[in-house]
Amino acid sequence: MENGIDSFLSNPEVLNKLRTDFAKNQNQTAKNIHNALDVSDIKTAHRLAHSLKGLAGLIQESTLANHAQALEDKLRDFSIVKSDIPTHLLDDMETELNIVLEKIPLPQASSKPLVLDKAKATQTFNELQPLLVRRSMSSLSYVADLQTIPGAEKLAELVEGFEFAKAIKELEAVAELLKI
User: Fold this and answer.
1) What's the whole-model pTM score?
2) In the chain, what are the domains?
3) What's the pLDDT tens digit per position in 153-167?
4) Of 13, 42, 63, 68, whose Cβ has the fewest other Cβ atoms within 10 Å?
5) E strand segments, 1-152
């Protein structure tokens, strides 16, 4: 099984997707940990540090994972209070989280309307459909193309979310709508 996850994470499209999701979903983590500590909710702060550690490791950000691990270790004692936590643990984690977040570019929404290139859309759908049926991670390589097809936004999200069965149905619906 280890070879499977290693090959999965060595796929640059998968790693980029995981990094983008990390940036979208973890940008408030330091603030949330501080807020939990401010109200003495050590369990929540511990859970957030634990999740941050695991996600940082998943996206191959070991320095951040190590800082989150140090904070998590200190928070294992649910009877502590915020003043018992060395400030450098919080500062180091927050600084490294910000460094990681700054390194991850988030896609910018386009303000110009999409114009259907029927031939390109047909080719994209024809190539993507068998990949979805096989539940292939290679389907991720079509997300950028899907984002250029009017009406295929939800399909792109389903592919990114590895929701293959729903993506197949959405592909069929968009193809019918666009008369492809």
Assistant:
1) 0.63
2) 2-103 (1.20.120), 118-178 (no CATH)
3) 999 989 988 899 999
4) 63
5) none
